[in-house]
Structures
1.
Amino acid sequence: MPGFFVYMPTVLFYNGWRFFFYSNENNEPVHIHCQKGEKDCKFWLKVEEYDVDLAFSFNMNSRDLNEVRKLIFNNFQYLIEKWSEFQQKKI
């Protein structure tokens, strides 16, 4: 598609995991994408409950998912702030 560009800002990089958003996911609730090599996942960040739900994972085992989940919880407020900043820039 000519002129189509997807911006994917990295908001956190830790232990090889890249945490980022996609610019073309309009109207989706707060979430974060995580990638390391061929491993990929997406978590919904449930702000009110201070919880996360796995949206999908690819090529990841339970240890990978637990590591990412822990990193998300350790940076929960930061990720929410970055999500809000990113959404404001899109308006």
2.
Amino acid sequence: MVRPRPAPRSYSLRGRLLWLLLIAVALAALVQGGIAFYAASSEADGIFDYHMQQIALALRGGLPSGPLPRHLAHDVDEADFDFVIQIWSLDGTPELTSSERGELPRQAAPGFSDVTVNGTRYRVFSTRTSTQVIQVAQDLSARQELAGSLVLRIVGPVMLFAPILMLAVWWVVSRSTRPLLRAREQIARRAAEELSPLTATDIPDEVRPLVDEINLLFARLAESFSAQQSFVADAAHELRSPLAALRLQVQSMQRATDTEARTVAARRLIGGIDRMGRLVDQMLVLARQDAAVDPVGTAPVDLRGTATLAIGDVLAAAQGRHIDLGISESAAVSVAGEPEALRILLRNLLENAIKYTPDGGTIDVAIRIADRSPVVEIADSGPGIPAEERSRVFDRFYRVAGASIAPGSGLGLAIVQSIAGRHHATISLDESPGLGGLLVTVRFPVSNAQPTSDAR
């Protein structure tokens, strides 16, 4: 059992772009805030350590000789002073302290260290003189509080600016995608038969090619629908005449009183049915060629072999009229395309030539390479086509004036033109210099040429 393929997930380009940009802005703000916090904290620690070091160094050599009071609390407001200063004699006797919270343990090793006293963590700097040990300490909680206020002043503007930047991103994205919404509304409001181009004003350069392609598609659809309507109208008109003729022939056969008259009427009826069938076949072939949207195949098609098959299709009709039909020049060359379509192209050209070539005439098929392009030429000894009519004979259901001697549907050359267009080939009509009739030249593009190995 074949499971149905899940429907592709749809998403909004505007929504995805907006969310990605907002997330990027938020992440950038967080990263910038983290970096600023780390930098500010490190800088604050460096500044406080520097101040502690400078206080300790300032006390070196500046103390009076003799005993000093152990407490300086009456000279220092502890609420505004975050540092604790202690001076020890070399034998360990405390000589000075600036705090009444208790003495800090003596740090024999000079430099910075962290100690905990009565549940409070201190950052301590110690230095030694020739007679004393000087210690400057700072409560780490006070340091962190001061560092936090400094970090807040640095990171605060970043956090405040991030929402403003998000709003700016939302406004820019919404305004930039507004032309897409207008284009979508244009398509949603139009009726199924409306194929006018979309308005391409204020469309971004990245989206303009898409709108242009949609307009080209609408133009091709309008042209296709117009051709279809014209084809249906022409087909209805062309079918009316043979149907009326068939009706008259049936009535003639019904009125026939003897066997000979009935036989003649039946023969005419069969001929009318054959012509009707031929017209319907031609219409179906043309409809299939016009409806083909896939590119032609890339497999090489031997033009000489295809021409031989097309000649075989019409050889009986040519022999019935004693027409000399054959290949006068045969270069071994192949083109990329559809074998059956190219066979129909050549067969229709040969059938058209047989219709207008008088009994005992000549039709020559030449396959050559001219200016590196594959070329097929079909020349006949018929009356040809006047120069003023050559631009119209490829129209559907169009027949040259005075062509009643060779009845047809008027679709043969239209089919040829459709197949040639799909193969990027060009068709030209001229007068045959050798036979005096019509010369049809089918020229394929240079890129289509693929010489075969059995050239003779």
3.
Amino acid sequence: MGLETARRALEAQQTALQVTAHNIANANTPGYSRQVMAMLPTAPYTVPTLSRSVGAGQVGTGVSVSDISRVRDAFLDAQMRDVQNTIGDMEARRDALQEVEIIFNEPSESGLHSVMDAFWQSLQDLANNPESPSVRSAVQQAGENLASAFRTTYRQLTDLRDNIDSVIRARVSEINDIAKEIAQVNGEIANVTAVGDKPNDLLDKRDALLEKLSKYVDVTIQPEQNGAISVFVNGMAVASPFGYSAIQITNDPANHNYAALSWPTTPPTPAQLKSGELNGLLTVRDSLVDDYLGQLDNTAASLATSINAIQTTGYGLPGTTPPPPDFFTAQGGGPINAANVEVNPAMTLADIAAAANNGSPTPDNPGDGSNALKMAAVKSQPDAVYLGGFSPDDYFRALIGKVGLETGETTRMADGQGLLAKQIENQRDAFSGVSLDEEMVNMMRYQYAYQAAAKLISVTDDMLDTLINRLGR
């Protein structure tokens, strides 16, 4: 019996050393959970007698490995998934809004607001020198610069929206791949659990996949039999013991042929998201950038319409035929907006209606620039049709302020959630991470126990040798 006891001790300590080696090998592996081994004494050997029942005083038979489990806190994991979900949403919005800030480039000398101010100033100069060809040329050039700035800003915003749509398509593909992989790991975990083993490394792999998925979409987890789980996104199971469901992408003709997301049901069910990076991208694409484009359109339409209304009621230089043509027109026709506004190519310098009367200049009245003053006053003139009662200058300032506030808020929230994620990560590392110092101590403990068990075998061998070979000599 002594040899069997020692053998069991050797096997248990050897297994413990293997677990320790596995921990040390994965000390720097992301997502790895420290593993611990539990030992229990084996069933004792009872000496049978007629007068003694089984109880204290039984002879022990050694040790066995009862369990090898990972050290993991489910509460910290759930917290991390929630935080990652918020981080994904806020970072998607923050990154897009920071690009919007770069596009508007305010405040700067090359920003759209500075180009607008240059146009207003050129009209002020025209009011003071209505007959000057150079001043009229400056007005025309300032108008062209303004129209070009509107078109460029609009194009850059639409390009940003197109790029976000491409990222959305890529994220959906990643989400589907993760869901498929979770379903595969689910099956492996169920198979290992069914035979009574602990799939610790597979559980770590699945947790890492869940954390990655939670950054993209809001997930809910439901435990199933044999260690498998079902993963839901807003009520739809994307992964389960029975497989996975892929998010479908179709082109939406009502939304610039951008990606529309749906579940593979009959008929297809629109995929509604609550949070996560994918929700943040969809919000930026379909709401925030669209809103900025609409306000940019309103600014361009208001400015061009107001200038044209004043231009067509004034007079150009003597010799031009009234009424003068519109100052701004739409490229390709149609209503004027930020995407198509341009200076009327049919308008000559002499057609710029700086005057409010049709009289020729006289010594007492060298030039009438009152109409140019009216056009310059559009800057601060309220517009109830396009701007809700705001002036073009105030409306555009409010737009830039809104972009700045939304960028600052999403940046603050993303940074705050990032700090929280770091704190949770530190707590999880302290609980589940591998401490090399601790593993070295364990290694020495198991090593000494192994050596002692080996010594026990040697001693038992000597005892048996004495009993068998030397007794009676």
4.
Amino acid sequence: MIYPILKHSHMMFALLSISFFLIRAYFSFSKPELLKIKAIKIAPHIIDTLLLIMAISLIFVLGVGLQTWIIAKIVALVFYIGFATIVIKQFGSITIRILACVMALLSFSYIVSVAITKQALWFI
């Protein structure tokens, strides 16, 4: 009974997480002063924390442990965070930031695809 609630909550927070990334990336490139708004700074941390709590809860409820596909999602998450940080914190040139934005979106897409297929190397 709790599994569907956790799964749908996890999916909702994932959607909110990528949505807030896209909003902040847009602000980073076009209106950086908006990144200083307190709610825009704090909300993604709350969303991402809840996303992680739902993910950990799902692992425990399903009793799957740290399987290869879950480890792949965690590694990709680290890359996503790194690339997103470059974009949001405005590190490097505009070219570097655009490339980092694309890489963050590709990392997120990989995470979603692994979640759907339960295969870390689904593309092979």
